[in-house]
Amino acid sequence: MREQTEEMHLVEEVKPIMERQLLEELERQRQRQAEVTAQKARKEKEKSKLEPAAARKLEKVNSSLQWHLHRSTEEKEERQRELINMKGQIATLMQRQQFRADPAQLERKNRIAKKKKGKLPSDFTPHP
């Protein structure tokens, strides 16, 4: 019985110490939870600041790419027009060269063409 009384007395002595330790541990856990919550809030705030900035940057890049595509398309069309113009100039020069050709040379071309195709092509007719 005496042992039981001593045990009870020991339990009574240890009980406040254990309660204090449990309360301290609980307080530490609450502080950690508050830190985690605050950190999450900071991250969300940073994220909400970064998202509009990233969207603006993406819009600028997209706009720039569209402008470059438009400019490249215009340049391509201009080169195609220049090429068509050059082809026309070459065709005109070739026709002029044909007019300057020696009548004997034209006659030779006509004979070669006649042999190959069996008839005289209209574009090899001699011009005065």
Task: Annotate the secondary structure layout.
Layout: H1 2-100, H2 103-117
Pick out its properties.
128 residues, 2 helices, 0% strand, rod-shaped
- Tally of individual helices: 2
Shape: rod-shaped
Largest sheet: none
Backbone structural class: mainly alpha
Mean pLDDT: 84
- Uncertain stretches: none
Quickly count the domains: 1
By oligomeric state, this entry counts as: single chain
Q: Helix content range of the residues, please?
A: over 70%
Radius of gyration: 49 Å
Instruction: Tell me what portion of residues adopts beta-strand conformation.
Output: under 5%
Number of strand segments: 0
Cα distance, first to last residue?
A: 147 Å
- The H/E string reads HH
Region (Disordered): 100-128
Keywords: Coiled coil
Coiled coil: 19-51
Summarize the structure.
89% of the residues lie in helices and 0% in strands. With 128 residues, it is mainly alpha-helical.
Describe this protein's structure.
The protein is mainly α and about 130 residues long. It has one domain (about 1-125). About 90% of the residues lie in helices and about 0% in strands. It contains two helices and no strands. It has helices at about 1-100, 105-115. The longest helix is centred in the middle third of the chain and has 99 residues, at about 1-100. The protein is rod-shaped. The model has no long low-confidence stretch (mean pLDDT about 85). Keywords: Coiled coil.
